[in-house]
Amino acid sequence: MDSKTMAKRAQSRNIGTEGKSEGYERHVLVCTGKSCCGDKNKGVETFKFLNKRLSKLKKEGRRFRCSEVSCLSICSGGPLVIVYPEGTWYHSVTPEVCARIIDEHLLEGHIVEEFAFAHNPLVQKCE
Ligand code: FES
Q: What is the rounded average pLDDT for all residues in the chain?
């Protein structure tokens, strides 16, 4: 497999390949490991809820990406979610909390501070 072929594959999944705005707006990682909430189904439930809502938003022209991960190394207070590029870490993300994160953070750009416990942005700051 070469990089050009991989880039085409990425483009078919709405992943930007030129560093421009053609890609997705935000990336949401959801931990579905059982160690952070004692029950793997809770993380899976949140992931399924998120995936369904993001699919609906895609039909409205919004481009968000979500990925299921097996562990984020905190292993407590789950389900855990991270939203990039802000690098906002959320705890206790039930489907109800996830709905708030979608409405307030993804769509409006406001962090849901009530459930945020860490901020590790990956964007460069210009001064
Ligand atoms: S299992 Fe979720 S952070 Fe480790």
A: 92
> What are the structure tokens assigned to 37, written together?
């909430």
Structural domain spans, the chain = 24-119
Query: Which amino acid appears at position 13 of this protein?
Result: R
- pLDDT, tens digit, 9 for 90 and up, residues 23-71: 899 999 999 998 988 887 999 999 999 999 999 999 999 999 999 999 9
| Class at the top of the CATH hierarchy for domain 24-119 | alpha beta
What does pTM read for this prediction? 0.91
Is the beta carbon of 72 within 6 A of some atom in ligand 1? yes
CB 90 within 8 A of CB 83: yes
Tell me how far the alpha carbon of residue 19 is from its chain's centroid: 19
31 in contact with ligand 1, CB cutoff 6 A: yes
Pairing state between β 116-119 and 26-31: unpaired
Ligand 1 pocket test, candidate residues 32, 44, 75, most atoms within 8 A of CB: 75
Coil/strand/helix, residue 73: coil
